[in-house]
Specification:
- The complex is a heterodimer.
- Chain A has 4 domains: about 10-70 and about 390-510, no CATH class; about 75-205, no CATH class; about 210-225 and about 240-325, no CATH class; about 330-385.
- Chain A is about 50% helix and about 5% strand.
- Chain A has 24 helices and 6 strands.
- Chain A has helices at about 10-15, 30-40, 50-55, 60-65, 75-80, 90-110, 125-145, 150-165, 175-185, 195-200, 205-210, 245-255, 265-275, 315-325, 330-345, 350-365, 365-375, 380, 395-405, 415-420, 440, 445-460, 480-490, 495-505, and strands spanning about 280, 290, 300-305, 305-310, 405-410, 465.
- The longest helix of chain A is centred in the N-terminal third of the chain and has 23 residues, at about 125-145.
- In chain B, the strands form 2 sheets. In chain B, strands 1, 5, 6, 7, 8, 9, 10, 11 and 12 form a 9-stranded mixed beta sheet that branches.
- Chain B is globular.
- By secondary structure, chain B is an alpha/beta fold.
- The relative contact order of chain B is 0.20.
- The longest helix of chain B has 20 residues, at about 290-310.
- Chain B has 2 domains: about 1-35, no CATH class; about 40-410, Alkaline Phosphatase, subunit A.
- The chains are: A mainly alpha, B alpha/beta.
- Chains A and B meet through helix 12, helix 21, helix 22, helix 23 and helix 24 of A and helix 6, strand 7, helix 9, helix 10 and helix 12 of B.
Amino acid sequence: MRAVILISLGILTAAAPPQPRAGPGGGLVTARDSALHALNRLAYGPRPGQIDSVARIGVMRWIDAQLDPSGPRNERLAERESGTPLLHLSTSDLAQRFFAAQQERRARAQQGQVALADNQMMAGPDELRARALAGQLQQLAVERAVLSDQQLQEVIVDFWSNHFNVFFGKGADRFLLPDYVEHTIRPRALGKFSDLLIATAQSPAMLFYLDNWQNVRSGGWADRRMGGSQNPSGPAAARRPHGINENYARELLELHTLGVEGGYTQHDVIEVARIMTGWSITPPRQGGEFVFRPRAHDDGEKVVMGEHYPSGHGMDEGMRLLRWLANQPATMHHVSWQLCQRFVNDVPPDGCVDDAVAAWRRTDGDIREVLRAIFHGPDFWANANVGAKVKTPLEFVASAVRAVGAEPDSTPRLAQVVARLGEPLYLHTAPDGYPDREADWVNSGALLQRMNVAVALAAGRLPGITPPDREATLDIDLSARTRQVINTEAQGDERLALGLALGSPDFQRR
Amino acid sequence: MAISRRVFVKSGGLALVSLGLDPLFLARAAYATPRDGSAERPLLVCIFQRGAVDGLSVVIPHGDAAYYSERPRIAVRSSDLVDLDGHFGLHPALAPLKPLWDNKSLALVPAVGSPDATRSHFDAQDYMESGTPGVKVTSDGWLNRYCQHCREHETTPFRAAAFGAELPRILAGSAPALAIPDLQAFGRTGGGGRRDGRTDTITRAFEEMYAGSSTGLISSSAQEAFEAVRMLREANPTQYTPDNGAAYPQGRFGHTMLQLAQLIKANVGLEIAFADVSGWDTHVNQGAAEGQLANRLREFGAGLAAFAQDMGERMRHIVVLTMSEFGRTVRENGSGGTDHGHGTAMLVMGGPVSGGRIAGRWPGLDSGVRYEGRDVPVTTDFRDLFSEILVRHCGAPDVQPVFPGFTGDRTRFPGVIRAV
């Protein structure tokens, strides 16, 4: 067996050479400190040697490069993407596979082998193939987090994937989600918020997840049934939608735009639902695309938070509503607050949120400029906020693999590690997405699991990792106490030292 | 013994480490004597049905004409349901719970819920877990506050445990609480299954690092974890066969209930247990006697019934409480489902339960009594139900600190716990 990962304990204890202060007006002392902080926030942590290279370029220049979408692409990653079968399949290809798997499962259920609700046991070949494709989507997210040179792009895609969360396990979303991630979220992740909002509103994945395809005018229009977990239990006619469904309307206001304190009432939710009637999907077996169905649309007049929507404007009503919501002050504040929570502190400083909102107002919700304002603000660099965030499971795993210069292999096993640590990707059932606060991720069981993963990774026993070819040096920041414990306990055993370093309390923060 | 065993283990364990002794030595010493009456201690199991279960499909008011007139596609026919008293019935998928109703260890609370009007899953779950409806700034959960304020039992890191990778809001707070993603994996540190000198070194090194890291959540959670690992190694719950022929259903919920039973029988001092089960947000094609909701209820009922059977005599000291953030609309929606409503139904099961009865006041389903004209109203504030269980089952002297701002008037208890 090839020697796995060699680290030099000297690196752990070596002090960084003192250099002039680099962060704009902050408390970070050296250029290396600033580089590490930026790599911990805009990226999934440093790869070996990366702190020095970012410090050399200049941390603000590196940040600007991360904000530049035309930056160089990582060729190795591009190769992997083109070698991922999932990305070569259309939604209708995926749908066919899904329905084949579903049929297989139903047949088994009829034979009494397993309850229909339970898809875990004794899968057939079509089900296994469908599951393998699902695994590729999760694995791809982990590969990109570890390998991409456009790290900020991956971080912000993760943010929006949670902000506009769609549960991968709900019926047709099992085959609609890849298109959602690739073509709805990713191309707009650093664009205008209004474009992203409209794209999600028109995405088959969201329309299915929050039931808007079933949202029709009162006494309304029959639509074809989507495949999925909805178990039929009556004649087809009984399953047709007959009236409005508030689910999307409510989450649009509460989660996607205004926020729960955004000043809307139950009546506004109903009016928004009426406006969104008719936003639907073509039959999934034919590709499942967005379609506006005029016959299902409620043509009456609506009033949302004092704004009048005269009757008879069809789909334009929804477009007008979404554009209006995208740049409401409550939306700017709600989304900016969440961005500051992600990039600065669990409890975002008011100044940070104010800077972000000002940039939003100035640029009409250009996400790139909102982020630039956050990264250039004093709060981002303040001592109190350095290392203030606890890593999510995805951040922990990706940063550990990056730190040792390793690579994920092409199996979904590394994504399964992330899942075991509590964050199965795209599988948060509720529309609020995974939380981004310390209290949600730190508990005794989760910490034990992280320590186990760290030790296994260092020992070369973590599945799903290709060890690095060369000798990697560990470039992470450890407290004096942690270094001392490692030096005492590891007694020169480098793998053990590495495992302890990655499992240390220091490495759980970013 | 005035000094709590927990503190003793924590500080003593660290002292011994510095002397180069195996910390397990101390754990063995501390736990060699059985905890006084551990099998007699009241145990509360809370199960959260996330997604807002349709209470009207759990405890079915088939005697209310509106139940059928408002739900032409999703009502359970009276010939299909499990009748209880001529007016209410159980969903047929919950038939395994009928014997518990018959032997008076299952009480049903319809029309229970929050005084807050929200129909947001997240807000309503948050309020039900924080125990402070309408107040968003409450930082800890009510089960944790119970543990904070009733400390006389606190001798074990397993006093409060939740099954799942994340510690739920309801158990968040300053009192120690464990999140257990998987019982078998929990006891292993060091990445391998076998314990040897090397895993002890690793455990010791991590313990030292985390003990010195800070006073924050990371440090305290890690300390709880190390103590729990020691105890679980002693208890060895990896070999397990359910008692009394209990058969847990396949699926996550059944597996969770099985692990809970294992943990209880390991006698590690569990007092508060929590698990959640999702899949109740039935906006579309809910189904009636069969269908989507029926499938979820089947696993749910079978899991609860298997747990009760497995526990056998131990059920004398156990109360299982189910909860959900709100109920669903009385009238079915245009998609053969139900939308977010208000009052729902909760189940209280166990030896101490005053069962075989409908607890709380049933307001009926007439349009005039509905909440905001559409939903089942709340006649039992969930805090009255939870308070009764804490006071009369767990022995809490006072629920004021657990539900701040709530009067906790005992005359409003719904009467789900038998007088001793």
